[in-house]
Amino acid sequence: MSKKQAVIRADETVTFISVFDVEPEKQQQLIDVLNEGAEKVISKRPGFISASILASKDGTRVVNYAQWKSLDDVKATREDPNAAPFAKRMAELAKATPNVFTVSSIHTA
């Protein structure tokens, strides 16, 4: 897992966010699967920009925040057979609510 600073882009970039509801004792397993999938498959896909994985302090949620160059890149990645085993493992651990967003604004200090 890379410990880099991510930059949130508010341009034509497509933001894919998936919120996972997970049992606290399975949160770390889910994070491990997300990290493995990002490192082995997702980060190598065309159009990939970045992915950030967030864990709730109470252990009940995980958020996967990823940015892509286009919606077609997101769709192609979701249909990639190499991503399917990771999606299956995630579904066994948690219930996901995925959606595609546009960053409307960013506020910084």
TrEMBL record:
Segments forming domain ABM: 14-104
DNA damage keyword on record: no
InterPro entries found in the cross-reference section: ABM_dom (IPR007138), Dimeric_a/b-barrel (IPR011008)
UniProt GO MF annotations: monooxygenase activity
Signal sequence segment: none
Coiled coil among keywords: no
Superkingdom: Bacteria
Keywords of the record: Monooxygenase, Oxidoreductase
Descriptive protein name: Antibiotic biosynthesis monooxygenase
